[in-house]
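step: validate -> pass
step: tokenize input -> pass
step: predict -> running
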Amino acid sequence: MDKRKRKRWIVLAALCALLACLIPYLLWANAALTVSHVELDLLPGEGSFTIAQVSDLHNAEFGGGNRELLAILEEAEPDLIAITGDLIDSRRTDPAPALAFLEGAVELAPVCYVTGNHEFRAYDAYQDLKSHMEELGVIVLENESMVLEEVPLRVIGLDDPSFGVRSDPSATPEQILQGALTALAPQAGEEDLRTVLLAHRPEYVELYAQHGADLVLSGHAHGGQVRLPGVGGLYAPGQGFLPAYTSGLYQIGETSLVVSRGLGNSLFPLRVNNRPEVVLVELA
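step: predict -> pass
step: emit ->
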């Protein structure tokens, strides 16, 4: 074998060895849950309130019955669990993993839920899931709001705009969201309440800010799927390559945006340098 061929074989062997090391790590990292903490000064007066954000489960399972995910929530002792869309996956519509998670979650804290784009894609399956959620006591917010008197906070849940486009095919997602947010303006006696907005898609955060949201909880970006040091996420739906909003806390004027990297995967089966997470938002 000449020197050039030998060099090629050495390089190939090195690449194979690298892959042999990387594949087990990637498989582990895609199943190894982590907890991220965000602290915000939002509440009037003294006291605290913890929201556990769960996003983009995509019917994934972390232990049988999602016991590992539920164990994290139980240890966190949140005051509210907020699910920000894509609980199910349009390619895997069996609701069993999602329902097993919800059955445990409602025993730990009140659970609020808003839709994502995958609920729209699996429209019929979602209608069935919604019925089960309501039976379990999950608070499904479809362009609706509620007031948490004990905090006090106003929580708004935005339907994914794809549901609105289904009703009005000529409308853009921005127009759908604009109409929903206008209709959800504070009522008499709510003007001074701080507002937490649950909205699956972070790319419309400037619109959310225009309507006075103090805190927005979003997902959808999957952390940019592949995360590189110093760069961040590489690609996110609705934002394209090198997306602006993929993970953590962002400030847009007076509005704080928290984007969860989420838990499951969809079309692209692997995350890279991007472990699935539960976000604990601690308000004071």
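step: describe -> The longest helix spans residues 3-29.
step: cleanup -> pass
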